[in-house]
Amino acid sequence: MADTLRETLKHAIHELLPPDGSPIGNQRLRERLSQQRSQAISDDDYFAARDLRVAEGLAATGRGRGGSV
């Protein structure tokens, strides 16, 4: 994934996170991200961008069937 796409997805993920800090499932967040961008987002692209947010301390991973953020 290109760095510009990674940055774009990273910011889009942040905008889609629940404002109250409640968790959202990875599958649901990826679906919303795909809808927002009107294109399918691969698992690799999604998790790379999500992990950047986590590394920055602006999101945290959680539990769930497919994991959560």
Which key terms come to mind for this protein?
69 residues; mainly alpha
Outline of the structure:
The chain has 3 helices and no strands. With 69 residues, the chain is mainly alpha-helical.
Number of strand elements: 0
Instruction: Give the CA-CA distance, first to last residue.
Output: 21 Å
The 3D shape can be described as: globular
Low-confidence stretches: none
Fraction in helix: 55-70%
Number of helices in the DSSP assignment: 3
Q: How would a crystallographer describe the biggest sheet?
A: none
Architecture overview:
The protein is mainly α and 69 residues long. Helices cover 57% and strands 0% of the residues. The protein contains 3 helices and no strands. Helix 1 crosses helix 2 and helix 1 crosses helix 3. The relative contact order is 0.23. The model has no long low-confidence stretch (mean pLDDT 90).
Write the layout of secondary structure elements.
Blueprint: H1 3-16, H2 26-37, H3 43-55
Helix pairs in contact: 1-2, 1-3
